[in-house]
Amino acid sequence: MWDDVPEVAGKGRASQGPEDRVRHTISQSAEPARGALAPSVRDARLDVLRGLAILVIAITHMEQGELRLHLLRPWLVAPFGVSTWAELFVGISGMLYGLVYGRAYVRKGPAHLLTKSLRRAGQIYVANLLAFLGALLAVHAAYKIGGDRGYLLEQVKPYLIGPDWSAYLDVVLLRRGPDQFDVLPLYVVLLLLAPGVLVLLLRRPRAGLAASAVLAVAGWSAYFIPVGQGRVVRDLLPWSMHYFDPLGWQLLFSVGMYFGVRRLYGQPSVPRHPWLLATALVIVLSTFAVIQVPKLQREIHDPIRLRADAGILDSREPSAYALPTEPREAASLLASKHLMGPGRLVHFMALIYVLAYFLAGRQWLWRNPAARVLAIVGRHSLYVFAFGLVLNYLGHTALQGAGLGTPAALAFQVLAVGLAIGFAYALEASRRRASATSSSGSGSS
């Protein structure tokens, strides 16, 4: 995944433009000296993995109430016991940010980087609002057809019955929203934080990672610093009601950016060492044996209980905002998905290292019809995700209201995936038309 990109020979430094100054600064840091920027070629493998991750996430989001995949669910949600597809998606997105936005900074300066990030954050913000309005309309239509049933219907009742205008204001300000409307607001925050961290990563890589780690520790600490009346610092933060804590998750995004910066300069993202591989294998295999195997056994014997009791590693937040006093509570904090706990981050890094090691050189994985479809989905992943939210709210409310069971749910999931892929192809066709129009316009001028 990371080291079949050849080193790029360095250039002379006759001029001192922004690209040369940044390259010189990096070469003076603790990192190995970097040469010229690697050629600007989009890595389809990253798009394939993002497309796969977003489709699996969409499928698992469709499982609510009785609409489950039972034995398939542990493999879809967390195939190796701890890390989920969400971590893969955020990590790869950070890597792409480092590649694309790092190049923009080196060539055009900090103002262009900031403008580009703000524009992208604005696009995602608008997509989140449109998806929210689409979900409301979809649930309203399904409710008229199917009646008063369904978990997701309960999620949007404050917006439809009354309505509660303060709930609308929370959505506009990204403070909270219905279930599953946490991902896009997380990305808005990540894109607002990313430019400063990226500049540090380009100039002083270790300082950039350290700054990101400090933010993550501050986010984790906010759960345990009291401010009176039974509340903690975290309760005062604007994202306190969201599932994903952005200060914890930005560390994963920043690690991805760091790998992207290395690739930007033609370096392998991660060095190969036998002891690194051995350590990563121990982490991955041990967590699989301790967590995933018992989870599969419980799914076979009692799938309803497993669904209701997700276990310590799916904990939304530390219990009662107290420092852990038992091993189970400590494990919940270290591997919390909500906080992006350090244990979860280490497991993800180990898993990616192992997968990259064994998948290196297998080009057939990325050059086949299925991979081409996933690559197109990956290029438009966040918009596909927003579209999937609307489909999910519509389908779930209609199925539950009509009292339909698993066969209908499976049929809906297949249909929804097909529609999401079709939506991605429509976006790709629109992008290509716009690109062709721009090229012909510049050529004629």
Q: What layout of secondary structure does this protein have?
A:
Blueprint: H1 18-27, H2 44-61, H3 73-77, H4 85-108, H5 110-146, H6 151-160, H7 165-172, H8 183-203, H9 205-221, E1 226-228, E2 231-232, H10 246-264, H11 274-301, H12 303-308, H13 327-334, H14 342-359, H15 369-379, H16 381-402, H17 406-444
Antiparallel strand pairs: 1-2
Helix pairs in contact: 1-4, 2-4, 2-15, 2-16, 4-5, 4-8, 4-10, 5-6, 5-8, 5-16, 8-9, 8-10, 9-10, 11-14, 15-17, 16-17
Q: In words, what does this structure look like?
A:
- The chain is mainly α and 445 residues long.
- It has one domain (18-433).
- Helices cover 68% and strands 1% of the residues.
- The chain is built from 17 helices and two strands.
- The protein has helices at residues 18-27, 44-61, 73-77, 85-108, 110-146, 151-160, 165-172, 183-203, 205-221, 246-264, 274-301, 303-308, 327-334, 342-359, 369-379, 381-402, 406-444, and strands at 226-228, 231-232.
- The chain has a two-stranded antiparallel sheet.
- Strand 1 and strand 2 (231-232) form a beta hairpin.
- The radius of gyration is 23 Å and the shape is globular.
- The two termini are 41 Å apart.
- Residues 1-33 and 300-323 have low confidence and may be disordered.
